[in-house]
Amino acid sequence: MSNAKAVTDDTFQSEVIDSEKPVIVDFWAEWCGPCRKLGPILDDISVQYADKVQVVKVDVDENPAVAAEYGITSIPAVFLFANGELKNTVIGAKPKPFFEQEFADYLK
């Protein structure tokens, strides 16, 4: 089970867009094998960089409005938001060093 906070259609605005910290959003689904592999990687990032970023999860099956708003057609999809804006997108399960490189500006 993930340490990441679950965010819903109703809480996305307050938890992600209005966040003072950058937020890494993991769009996932229970039935998605690669999503389950990615969970522990993002959990590691959330612990290691807790003072820099927040990591949250959005179950696309339970929260179709947010998934549709951001055009999620493939999962896992990992989006980084900062200052209320989408800054970076990674599609697919990648190793931790890949995310650390992609999101480096927000993990310093």
From TrEMBL:
<feature type="active site" description="Nucleophile">
    <location>
        <position position="32"/>
    </location>
</feature>
<dbReference type="GO" id="GO:0005737">
    <property type="term" value="C:cytoplasm"/>
</dbReference>
<keyword id="KW-1015">Disulfide bond</keyword>
<feature type="site" description="Deprotonates C-terminal active site Cys">
    <location>
        <position position="26"/>
    </location>
</feature>
<protein>
    <recommendedName>
        <fullName>Thioredoxin</fullName>
    </recommendedName>
</protein>
<feature type="site" description="Contributes to redox potential value">
    <location>
        <position position="34"/>
    </location>
</feature>
<keyword id="KW-0813">Transport</keyword>
<feature type="disulfide bond" description="Redox-active">
    <location>
        <begin position="32"/>
        <end position="35"/>
    </location>
</feature>
<dbReference type="InterPro" id="IPR017937">
    <property type="entry name" value="Thioredoxin_CS"/>
</dbReference>
<keyword id="KW-0676">Redox-active center</keyword>
<comment type="similarity">
    <text>Belongs to the thioredoxin family.</text>
</comment>
<feature type="domain" description="Thioredoxin">
    <location>
        <begin position="1"/>
        <end position="108"/>
    </location>
</feature>
<feature type="site" description="Contributes to redox potential value">
    <location>
        <position position="33"/>
    </location>
</feature>
<dbReference type="Pfam" id="PF00085">
    <property type="entry name" value="Thioredoxin"/>
</dbReference>
<dbReference type="InterPro" id="IPR005746">
    <property type="entry name" value="Thioredoxin"/>
</dbReference>
<dbReference type="InterPro" id="IPR013766">
    <property type="entry name" value="Thioredoxin_domain"/>
</dbReference>
<feature type="active site" description="Nucleophile">
    <location>
        <position position="35"/>
    </location>
</feature>
<dbReference type="InterPro" id="IPR036249">
    <property type="entry name" value="Thioredoxin-like_sf"/>
</dbReference>
<keyword id="KW-0249">Electron transport</keyword>
<dbReference type="GO" id="GO:0015035">
    <property type="term" value="F:protein-disulfide reductase activity"/>
</dbReference>
